[in-house]
Write a structure and sequence with these properties.
There is one protein chain. The protein starts with a helix and ends with a strand. By secondary structure, it is α+β, with helices and mostly antiparallel strands. It has a domain of 53 residues. Strands 1, 2, 3, 4, 5, 8, 9, 10, 11 and 12 form a ten-stranded mixed β-sheet that branches. The chain has a two-stranded antiparallel ribbon with strand order 6-7. α1 packs antiparallel against α2. Bound molecules: coenzyme A (COA).
């Protein structure tokens, strides 16, 4: 594509040079040096641009720093999460203090492109003993009350990709870093309580009659396994319908159980009304008295007698290994 534009630019320049020369010879000899200069600068600019287009992107992965957290919050957290679910900058700073090696940020050309937050806990390998995402995060959600420096399990807690960088398999790169961390810190398991990002939309399409586990385990999307990740290269495989679970399955995800109260958020009724009015207002639907779907993975229940509303979201506990 760059080549075609380069060719077009050259043609335009030669044609305009030809005409300009003819006119100038006859009428505007005085302008000639100036126009030459303009061509010169135009050529320089064009060469620079072509050079930049060729420059490969610089991708780096680093640990979160106090300085970069406000920018990460603005570019990665806020655009990707409903306001009642987004981590605060204080919580992010806390995580970076408690478990610095477990907080990764990918930059592309020095701009935050993706982030992964992890916690370290002890787990006995029995799915039944896994509690909720909230329990692993602790309160406040900065891992300060749950991080175990001798834990045998790395828990993937939150992944964010900048909107303009989504679809480029950046999560796979960050998960590879997580796998490396498990090895470096001599841990045994890599797990997560994963959020099926397409569940909110799917629920609405099924008239809110789509059980969570059924949604998460439906393997209805066919893909070509070019590199033999699941066996023979070139074979067609069945992957989860949910886009995030599909991506995680490439990384080795195996479902364990439903985390029925992964994220529970209670707010005063007035705050709930504010969310309903300002956050994706056309997606809110009262499916039964005092129960509201909002296009998200979870739903809201209103308690008028307490003047409060509670959001509850299921996630999928899964093991990568
Ligand atoms: C969920 C989220 C992290 C996914 O990131 P993404 O950039 O959109 O997804 P990916 O780049 O991993 O996936 C893109 C494609 O690559 C595929 N893919 C991923 N890894 C792959 C691999 N190793 N080999 C082949 N294909 C792969 C995915 O399956 C997907 O393809 P498909 O949908 O056509 O099947 C991102 O959408 C996001 O930040 N969402 C908001 C926050 C959130 O909900 N986070 C998750 C819960 S913590």
């Amino acid at each position: 594509m760059g080549g075609i534009f380069f060719g077009l630019k050259l043609q335009i320049i030669f044609i305009s040079m030809f005409f300009t020369q003819h006119h100038q010879v006859r009428r505007r000899r005085r302008l000639r040096p100036m126009i030459k200069k303009l061509y010169y600068y135009y050529f320089l600019n064009m060469l620079n641009k072509t050079e930049n287009e060729k420059t490969p992107h610089v991708i780096s992965v680093k640990n979160w720093s106090k300085e970069i957290i406000p920018q990460m919050h603005r570019l990665l957290e806020v655009p990707n999460w409903a306001p009642w679910l987004a981590a605060s900058t204080q919580s992010m700073e806390g995580r970076a203090n408690v478990f610095p090696e477990g907080q990764l940020m990918m930059e592309i050309d020095t701009v935050p492109a993706a982030s992964l937050s992890m916690n370290r806990i002890y787990w006995d390998g029995n799915p039944q003993s896994l509690k909720s995402w909230d329990d692993v995060a602790g309160d406040p959600t900065d891992y300060s009350s749950t991080y175990n420096p001798a834990g045998n399990t790395l828990v993937l807690m939150s992944m964010n990709v900048a909107l303009e960088q989504q679809g480029k398999q950046l999560p796979a790169r960050l998960i590879n870093h997580a796998k490396q961390l498990v090895a470096d810190l001599n841990m045994q398991y890599l797990i997560g309580s994963f959020r099926p990002t397409g569940y909110g939309v799917a629920k609405a399409e099924h008239n809110y009659q789509l059980p969570f586990w059924q949604y998460c385990t439906q393997m209805t999307v066919s893909r070509l396994d070019k590199h033999g990740v699941f066996g023979q290269s070139g074979s067609t495989i069945q992957l989860p319908f949910d886009p995030w679970l599909r991506s995680l399955t490439w990384a080795g995800l195996k479902p364990l159980k439903e985390d029925t109260s992964a994220m529970v958020v209670s707010v005063p009724l007035i705050e709930f009304q504010g969310y309903k009015q300002n956050y994706k207002p056309n997606q809110w639907n009262e499916i039964q008295p005092n129960v509201w779907e909002c296009g998200e993975v979870g739903l809201w229940t209103i308690y008028p007698e307490n003047g409060s509303a509670t959001y509850t979201e299921s996630n999928l506990w899964g093991v990568i290994y």
